[in-house]
Task: inverse folding
């Protein structure tokens, strides 16, 4: 019996293993519980190939499907922000004091190597067949127990990336790190979630712009 | 005359496809002239086309119309710009042409317009054009030194003269202080620039003072519903404007006369 037990476990484990979809469902449940704010730090690559330090503050209101991304770094983006709503994406440019508004469907914001408006929606990428996810692997990330997943885009040109890697905290079931890269292995962005906290936002606190800004509507 | 109206009607024929139709009434003096205006805007992807018409009463010979095209482009989340051109021609053989472009790339932004006005009295409000006859150029630049300091520069050059100005804007929390200097026509005609911008009860208020060879005070106010500005200058000149919802009103009075311009923008999407 003692010999049989490891054998049974060996066959039973794959059946018990967590799939990427299940894991993203759990993460989505955690992130959808209420408003939250996270700080993402790492590196992004600009269109001309320069790697730059990145520091973003992400604020979300899941019930309203609103995400606000405030850029602290790189210097060229500092004080700019992007607000994503179900219908529109608003890109605020500090230097020119302009708000450029795009329909959500056309809001591919160039320059980060991937569509910024879908950054937190990894489950949806899988559902739409745009990314094929491998099985989660158990790893340690910054002394935390984590799941590591690798996804490959079925249409790198359309998606703007060929490979995406995600590290998910096993206890808190929230993202710890997300990295997007190209077909030749070049990293477009590699961002670590350095802080994560629950918050109390109202829609008006996220979808707000300087009242003196110039508005440019794109259709 | 009938041929002209036919051409104008053809020009304005596709309003159903346009994004917006702006109706305005311009009035100016000395004396009294009234000019109903129409501006049709048609966006096509990154392109945008405009058609303009201004009648002019009581002297209908001064009817003028214009065409414009511009193309927007983008380069990264902080990079965007546009280039374009527009031209106007009037029944009394005046014309005005202008090319323009602007670009913002991360820490720097530039804009430039170059135009030529021939044989006409400039109008400040329909749309803004060269305020002198002949060739003119406007250029502006902004450069962010860091998150607090921004260098601003602008110039306006025209036949027989020009104006140049440079300033440093210093941001402290949500307030911005501006200090700079400029000159009109020659370096000895210098003036100082002082500015202050602050949020106030959900609005943004900005004051800018130019003192020296140019004496001017401008106050801007913007909240979620209204944008207003008031400029007072010496030698005596005053200008004011208010924009709310789809409406906008501008007025200017100086020693040579006055101008008023009221306009309403009708969105046509879905018609």
Result:
């Amino acid at each position: 019996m003692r010999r049989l037990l490891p054998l049974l476990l060996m066959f039973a484990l794959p059946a018990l293993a967590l799939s990427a979809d299940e894991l993203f469902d759990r993460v989505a449940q955690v992130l959808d519980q209420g408003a939250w704010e996270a700080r993402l730090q790492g590196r992004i690559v600009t269109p001309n190939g320069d790697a730059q330090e990145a520091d973003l503050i992400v604020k979300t209101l899941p019930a309203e499907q609103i995400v606000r991304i405030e850029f602290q770094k790189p210097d060229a983006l500092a004080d700019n922000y992007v607000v994503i709503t179900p219908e529109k994406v608003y890109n605020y440019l500090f230097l020119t004091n302009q708000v450029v508004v795009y329909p959500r469907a056309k809001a591919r914001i160039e320059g980060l190597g991937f569509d910024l408006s879908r950054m937190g929606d990894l489950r949806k990428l899988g559902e739409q067949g745009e990314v094929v996810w491998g099985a989660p692997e158990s790893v340690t990330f910054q002394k935390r127990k984590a799941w590591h997943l690798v996804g490959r885009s079925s249409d790198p040109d359309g998606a703007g990336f060929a490979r995406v890697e995600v590290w998910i905290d096993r206890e808190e079931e929230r993202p710890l790190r997300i990295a997007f890269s190209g077909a030749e292995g070049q990293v477009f962005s590699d961002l670590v979630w350095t802080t994560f906290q629950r918050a109390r936002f109202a829609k008006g606190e996220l979808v707000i712009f300087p009242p003196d800004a110039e508005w440019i509507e794109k259709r | 005359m009938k041929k002209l109206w036919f051409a104008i009607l053809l020009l304005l024929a596709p309003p159903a496809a346009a994004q917006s139709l702006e109706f305005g009434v311009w009035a100016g003096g000395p004396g009294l002239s009234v000019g109903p205006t129409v501006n049709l805007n048609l966006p096509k992807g990154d392109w945008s086309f405009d058609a303009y018409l201004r009648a002019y009463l009581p002297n209908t010979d001064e009817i003028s119309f214009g065409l414009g095209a511009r193309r927007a482009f983008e380069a990264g989340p902080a990079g965007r710009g546009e280039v374009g051109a527009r031209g106007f021609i009037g029944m009394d053989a005046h014309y005005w042409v202008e090319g323009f472009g602007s670009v913002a790339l991360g820490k720097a932004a530039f804009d430039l317009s170059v135009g030529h006005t021939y044989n006409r009295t400039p109008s400040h409000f329909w749309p803004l054009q060269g305020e002198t006859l002949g060739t003119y150029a406007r250029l502006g630049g902004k450069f962010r030194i860091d998150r607090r300091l921004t260098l601003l520069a602008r110039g306006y050059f025209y036949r027989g003269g020009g104006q140049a100005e440079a300033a440093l804007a210093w941001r402290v929390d949500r307030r911005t202080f501006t200090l700079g200097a400029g000159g009109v026509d020659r370096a000895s005609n210098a003036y100082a620039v002082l500015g202050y911008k602050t949020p106030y009860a959900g609005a943004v208020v900005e004051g800018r003072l130019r003192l020296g060879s140019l004496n001017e005070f401008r106050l801007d106010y913007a909240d979620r519903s209204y944008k207003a500005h008031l400029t007072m200058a010496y030698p005596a000149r005053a200008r004011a404007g208010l924009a709310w919802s789809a409406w906008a009103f501008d007025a200017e009075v100086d020693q040579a006369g006055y101008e008023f311009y009221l306009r309403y923008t009708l969105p046509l999407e879905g018609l």
